[in-house]
């Protein structure tokens, strides 16, 4: 999802001006300690819990289950730490959901990549840091780009919730052994919000535009997160429940619901026409990539049509275009390409129709 309003003057995620920097600093410090502690104990704790469970029941526990349970507990504690901020400002609901997808998806499916740290970083940390995650680099890049471009175009400090969502989306969806694709994709995504727009509306979802451009311009260096199904049901249930709840609170649950309702019967059509098992065609709905797509890309308030009926229609059209791309071109990136085509096309039609209606009203 995206939120880019020139009216926002405070880039810092805090509940109110009265709370000030002290509350934000304390919450950030507590978050860093909790997250650092989680990653410090995650693997040994998982092995200990798995060993205890096997000895007690005689059944081997899925290695991902202890990680999922621990990360859900961590997220619950972090929500408690940031509850005032999250409850008072709906713009933080999307960052909460995308963080859940990142954390639970990594715990269940290991979707985060780690790159070897450069020699200077190893030396600077005394050998403590040997790897780093390009996802966190993408988050920093998108937030920095949002600050610079927001200040340049609007003369005010933009809210950074949207940039945070874009950074995580880029970090999850882009796969590369090099760092520069993550950086460039993040920059393209944020820049598209300010350049490719009409009035206060973006034509493309930023992450969809950035990932699609990288897949087009640098296919030798960039791949995308697969729509391969996950094999841990708890992760899927957690993400779908939280995603559905947040979308419902934001009044946008009908969009992912309409897309999924169209995607499932179309999966049977694809199965019939290709000879693939219908389970194979439906299985992508359990993947982290699919969940990012339906909860963020197609529900972005700045890049969706305005009315409930139009939003449902567009979601169905995107699902139909995705099936067409897959069947006609054997397109492995059909989800990205479907939204890349349908999203701006329907936005332009609506913008033209609204302006024409407005002109007609003034002439009466």
Chart the SSEs and their pairings.
Blueprint lengths: L19 H38 L6 H18 L1 H6 L4 H17 L5 E2 L2 H6 L6 E2 L1 H21 L6 H13 E2 L4 H16 L1 E2 L2 E2 L3 H12 L5 E2 L8 H17 L4 H21 L3 H5 L5 H10 L10 H22 L4 H30 L1
Antiparallel strand pairs: 1-2, 3-6, 4-5
List keywords for this structure.
globular, mainly alpha, two-stranded antiparallel sheet, single chain, 364 residues, 69% helix, two-stranded antiparallel ribbon, disordered N terminus, 15 helices
Describe the structure.
With 364 residues, the protein is mainly alpha-helical. The chain contains 15 helices and six strands. The protein has a two-stranded antiparallel sheet. β4 and β5 (201-202) form a beta hairpin. The model is unreliable at 2-18 (pLDDT under 50).
List the uncertain runs.
2-18
- How many individual domains? 1
Mean pLDDT: 87
β-strand percent reads: under 5%
Radius of gyration equals 21 Å
Number of strands: 6
Q: What is the helix fraction of residues, given as a range?
A: 55-70%
Overall 3D shape: globular
Give the helices and strands as they follow along the chain.
Answer: HHHHEHEHHEHEEHEHHHHHH
Physical arrangement of strands within the biggest beta sheet: 1-2
Distance between the first and last residues' Cα: 38 Å
Number of DSSP helical runs: 15
Q: What does the main sheet amount to? A: 2 strands, antiparallel
Determine the structural class based on helices, strands and strand pairing.
mainly alpha
């Amino acid at each position: 999802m995206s939120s880019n309003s020139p009216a926002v003057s405070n880039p810092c995620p805090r509940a109110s001006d009265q709370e000030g920097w002290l509350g934000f600093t304390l919450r950030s410090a507590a978050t860093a300690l909790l997250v650092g502690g989680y990653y410090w104990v995650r693997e040994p704790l998982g092995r200990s819990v798995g060993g205890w469970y096997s000895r007690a029941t005689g059944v081997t526990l899925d290695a991902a289950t202890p990680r999922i349970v621990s990360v859900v507990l961590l997220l619950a504690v972090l929500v408690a730490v940031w509850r005032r901020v999250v409850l008072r400002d709906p713009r933080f609901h999307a960052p909460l959901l995308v963080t859940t997808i990142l954390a639970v998806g990594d715990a269940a499916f290991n979707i985060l990549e780690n790159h070897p740290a450069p020699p200077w970083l190893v030396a600077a940390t005394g050998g403590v840091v040997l790897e780093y995650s390009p996802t966190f680099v993408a988050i920093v890049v998108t937030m920095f780009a949002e600050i610079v471009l927001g200040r340049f175009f609007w003369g005010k400090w933009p809210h950074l919730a949207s940039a945070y969502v874009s950074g995580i989306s880029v970090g999850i969806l882009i796969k590369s052994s090099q760092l520069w694709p993550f950086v460039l994709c993040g920059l393209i995504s944020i820049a598209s919000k300010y350049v490719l727009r009409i009035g206060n509306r973006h034509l493309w979802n930023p992450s969809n535009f950035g990932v699609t451009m990288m897949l087009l311009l640098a296919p030798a260096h960039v791949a995308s997160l697969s729509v391969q199904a996950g094999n841990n049901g708890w992760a899927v249930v957690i993400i779908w429940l939280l995603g559905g709840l947040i979308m419902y609170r934001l009044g946008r649950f009908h969009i992912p619901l309409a897309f999924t309702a169209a995607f499932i019967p179309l999966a049977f059509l694809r199965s019939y026409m290709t000879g693939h098992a219908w389970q194979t065609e439906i299985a992508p709905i359990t993947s982290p990539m699919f969940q990012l797509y339906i909860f963020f890309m197609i529900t972005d308030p700045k890049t969706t049509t305005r009315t409930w009926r139009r939003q449902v229609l567009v979601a169905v059209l995107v699902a139909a275009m995705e099936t067409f791309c897959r069947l006609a071109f054997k397109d492995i990136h059909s989800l990205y390409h479907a939204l890349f085509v349908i999203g701006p096309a329907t936005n332009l039609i609506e913008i033209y129709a609204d302006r024409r209606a407005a002109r007609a009203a003034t002439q009466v």
